[in-house]
Specification:
Elements: H1 5-14, E1 20-21, H2 24-30, H3 39-45, E2 52-54, H4 59-72, E3 76-79, E4 96-99, E5 106-110, E6 113-117, H5 122-129, E7 134-136, H6 148-154, H7 161-164, E8 173-179, E9 187-191, H8 192-195, E10 207-217, E11 221-228, H9 231-243, E12 249-255, E13 275-282, H10 286-295, E14 299-304, H11 306-312, H12 321-331, E15 335-337, E16 340-341, H13 347-358, E17 362-363, E18 365-370, E19 376-380, E20 383-385, H14 389-401, E21 405-406, H15 414-417, H16 425-434
Parallel strand pairs: 2-4, 3-4
Antiparallel strand pairs: 1-2, 5-6, 6-10, 7-10, 8-9, 8-10, 11-13, 11-14, 12-13, 12-18, 15-20, 16-19, 16-21, 17-20, 18-19
């Protein structure tokens, strides 16, 4: 425990009506996310924890906690459900974990747009929008538990990004309501590009209270697995399907062998050693999709209509994006993963090249996505047979040397995860504006050092 007892006790004495969490086991759990996907981060972060956690339910309660922490110099680490993978919600300086899951109201909806509090779970948000024929533009595979604020603070893309790009693409997030971290907190509405200066910064430069997001038209989605005996056939089918303008789709994922062998819950539908393309296409587009599959030598091994998916409450969405990694780790806990971006127009060529260079050690899993310019490409979430940290660094270097972008998921500094690039000046200014005392998630930005709670208050 790094914070002085007096500082934490004073917080609780000042605000006795709040839902304080002091049990060591619960505080430890609330101080962690899925950073154990990385053996590097697991080693670095496994002993880090907050001194206390609190779960506010109203804006007034949030304001009270923030003001009390700011007056005492107590660090604050924000979290939703903790479904991130980089130790985003792990405090490096103790202090308070601010659990936002109790602040979870759905506020309103209009054609093409909805607004909700940051702690709402994404599955619940979409339950509210579906009756109007609308759904989220980008849905992570962890949608049942992930929160809207967590998606904004630490997420990238997801199911639907094949149409609308990553969450950070212009037009996907329309506005946010955020609170400053100071003795007398202010609440400020940010719109458009200004709001995005808090996106994917792990809650280091502002406390987001509400988000206004764009919605997409909902379709009855047909869920399929198409299997192949040949890597190239499977990849080219996935690419043709992704680029077919007349086929309405929500998700296309490519799993090279032997990834399918690690998806135990789907084993009955995946012949051993097969290459697999997972897709969600509009039911009306099934004939066109099947024609493409047949042309590339694919076999449909799994098919569920939207009604069947709803009835079973089991969806292939939960085998995509980083859920694929989770399923694989359950079978082989020695695996880890990478996060990569391929060059639009060269993505197929680059995927084949990396398979030839590293196949067997690095197992290719790609998600088809439009980039911020609207061009079709792939985000990779490759599985890696981990041996040493030095070899992992070599593998990352091999990708980068061949033009494959790597967002390193084995580091705990925001800038390092973005290939070592400095933060834009406007993001730095946002940090100064909303967190002038440097209390938000200290240690996660390179230029803001870790600050522990003062020994005496």
């Amino acid at each position: 425990m790094t914070a002085s007892i007096s500082a934490i006790e004073e917080l609780r004495l000042e605000l006795p009506g709040l839902d304080w969490i002091t049990d060591e086991g619960r505080v430890t759990r609330l101080s962690q996310d899925f950073s154990w996907f990385s053996p590097v981060l697991n080693r670095q972060l496994k002993d880090k924890r907050a001194d206390v956690a609190v779960r506010p339910r109203t804006e007034d309660e949030i304001r009270a906690v923030v003001g009390a922490c700011a007056r005492r110099g107590v660090p604050i680490t924000l979290r939703g459900s903790g479904t991130g993978n980089y130790g985003q919600t792990t405090p490096l300086a103790g202090g308070v974990v601010l659990d936002m899951t109790g602040y979870n109201a759905f506020l309103w909806m209009q054609p093409g747009v909805a607004r909700a509090q940051a702690g709402i779970r994404l599955g619940e948000l979409e339950k509210q929008t579906k009756p109007s024929g609308q759904e989220m533009r980008s849905m992570p595979s962890t949608y049942r538990s992930a929160t809207l604020g967590g998606l904004f603070g630490g997420g990238f893309g997801g199911v639907g990004s094949i149409n609308y790009g990553p969450l950070g693409a212009p037009g996907n997030v329309l506005g946010i309501r955020a609170m400053t971290i100071e003795p007398e907190p202010q609440v400020i509405e940010l719109r458009g590009a200004e709001a995005m200066r808090m996106h994917h910064l792990w809650g280091t430069n502002g406390l987001v209270l509400e988000l206004e997001i764009a919605l997409a038209p909902a379709h009855p989605w047909l869920e399929t697995l198409v299997t192949f005996g040949n890597f190239s056939d499977a990849l080219h089918f996935a690419d043709k399907l992704a680029n077919a303008p007349g086929i309405v789709k929500r998700e296309i994922a490519f799993f090279a062998a032997p990834i399918s062998d690690h998806l135990a819950q789907l084993a009955a539908h995946l012949p051993k050693g097969c290459h697999t393309v997972l897709s969600l296409v509009a039911e009306s587009c099934e004939p066109a999709m099947l024609q493409l599959a047949e042309a590339h030598g694919g076999t449909v091994s799994y098919r569920r209509t939207a009604a069947e998916v709803q009835k079973s409450n089991r969806t292939l969405m939960e085998f995509t994006w980083n859920h694929t990694t989770l399923h694989a780790l359950k079978v082989d806990p020695t695996l880890t993963y990478l996060q990569s971006g391929f060059v639009p127009g060269r993505h197929v060529e680059q995927i084949i090249e990396m398979e030839q260079l590293l196949g067997g050690e690095v197992m290719m899993h790609t998600e088809f996505i439009r980039n911020v310019a609207g061009l079709m490409t792939c985000s990779g979430l490759q599985l890696v047979r981990f041996s040493t940290e030095e070899r992992l660094a070599e593998i990352i270097g091999i990708h980068r040397a061949r033009g494959v972008h790597i967002n390193n998921p084995h580091v705990n500094i925001v800038e390092d995860g973005k290939a070592g690039g400095p933060l834009p000046p406007e993001v730095i200014e946002m940090k100064k504006r909303f967190d002038p005392m440097g209390l938000l998630n200290p240690g996660k930005l390179r230029d803001w050092p870790v600050k522990a709670v003062p020994a005496e208050v």
